[in-house]
Design brief:
Blueprint: E1 3-8, H1 12-24, E2 27-32, H2 35-42, E3 49-53, H3 57-69, E4 77-82, H4 88-94, E5 98-101, H5 106-123, E6 130-140, E7 143-153, E8 157-161, E9 171-176, E10 185-194, E11 199-206, H6 209-223, H7 236-239, E12 262-272, E13 279-286, E14 290-294, E15 304-310, E16 315-326, E17 330-335, H8 340-355
Parallel strand pairs: 1-2, 1-3, 3-4, 4-5
Antiparallel strand pairs: 6-7, 6-9, 7-8, 8-11, 9-10, 10-11, 12-13, 12-15, 13-14, 14-17, 15-16, 16-17
Helix pairs in contact: 1-5, 2-3
């Protein structure tokens, strides 16, 4: 059965492009000319994806917010069509999962919708979920070691409750104890969905072998006779064994955040190593180990980069490698700090952010 999409308020060119792309992806497309009729239809029908022209910010925010509160479509993937980058944050805050920039190109739409379709198919999982009430410690972006209640668990993922909005496709690192298990579960996951009540669905991304064994053993033991409420965290002696933070998770070096991140807002030109084509971006947090680069077109993981920051007093060149990618939003970059000169450049960059009035 094909996935079902609803296109709202799109112009003729956008309709034509998306109709072809959705057809190629075996996704049925339905249309509504305005937000009022779309809201009425969403109140009575279920859709897998909603794609809405968000030129009218107020109407789009109203539709997305109502969608997240509905019983029919609160877990629907939402894609906002934007003409520029000024409304990106407000659209994510309203509940959208992806953005596509106008004028829509078939290539960009195909890439984004292929990712969305993959997420939807993975969420239509067959793996049984087991309720598990307790606390996990999570870290993501520039946020470290935040308590988050666990809600349920499966072989493929977990749902938690978060007080803060997490970015779509955000990488989250978390750890917890399971009842009857001494070993601590440490792993990373990607955000797939989040509703207005703070419930977050995460798909496992990297699970070390030891943690995978603990998960499988516990799930096997609890699948047959699942109780309505299971307490996670074990006894007090188990919880006392848990490390205080997530900075030393047993995951690949590419995913670690061993350095404290500091908020900033610096304009920069980012180049793929070996090229002379600049990409205008913003550095939104920095540490001595790396930075986060906000850009609507992030490079793939493993890409070598050159970052150029210019101020009235300085011109800094810093090399790095892309470690994590959040589609249509940005990428995490690890600095290549191999010599004292490299280290000095990073320290100058952090000092530069402080000098222009950014809290570092």
């Amino acid at each position: 059965m094909p996935l079902k999409s609803l296109l709202v308020g799109a112009d003729a060119h956008t309709q034509e492009v998306l109709h072809g792309v959705l057809h190629d992806l075996n996704m049925a497309m339905h249309e509504c000319a305005d937000f009022t009729s779309a809201a009425a239809r969403l109140a009575s029908e279920s859709f897998d994806i909603v794609i809405a022209d968000s030129s009218d910010k107020e109407s789009a925010t109203w539709l997305f917010s109502g969608l997240r509160k509905s019983k029919q479509n609160k877990a629907t993937l939402v894609i906002a069509l934007l003409e520029g980058e000024s409304n990106v944050r407000s659209m994510f805050a309203a509940g959208c999962n992806f953005v596509l920039y106008k004028p829509i190109s078939a290539e960009r739409a195909l890439d984004s919708l292929r990712v969305a379709r993959g997420l939807l198919k993975q969420e239509k999982r067959r793996a049984k979920r087991v309720r598990v009430h307790g606390k996990a410690s999570i870290s993501y972006a520039a946020t470290q070691d935040v308590p988050a209640p666990l809600l349920d668990l499966s072989e493929d993922g977990v749902s938690i409750r978060s007080e803060k909005k997490l970015l779509p496709s955000c990488k989250v690192y978390f750890q917890f104890n399971l009842p009857g298990q001494v070993s601590l579960v440490r792993l990373s996951g990607d955000v797939v969905w989040q509703d207005d009540n703070g419930r977050v669905g995460l798909r496992f991304a990297h699970v070390p072998q030891t943690s995978r064994r603990v998960l499988n053993d516990w799930l096997k033991a609890n699948m047959a006779g699942e109780k309505s409420s299971v307490t996670a965290g074990g006894s007090s002696q188990h919880s006392s064994e848990a490390p205080a933070g997530l900075g030393l998770l047993s995951v690949s070096a590419a995913d670690r955040r061993e350095k404290a991140r500091h908020a900033c807002h610096l304009s920069a030109d980012v180049y793929r190593a070996g090229t002379t084509i600049p990409n205008r971006c913003t550095l939104s947090d920095i540490s001595t180990g790396g930075c986060y680069v906000e850009t609507t077109a992030p490079f793939p993981p493993g890409t070598a980069l050159e970052i150029l920051v210019r101020t009235q007093a300085l011109k800094l060149h810093i090399a790095g490698t892309v470690q994590t990618v959040h589609p249509a939003f940005g990428m995490g970059v690890e600095f290549m700090v191999k010599t004292p000169e490299h280290r000095k450049q990073v320290e100058q960059l952090i000092a530069c952010a402080a000098q222009v009035g950014i809290s570092v």
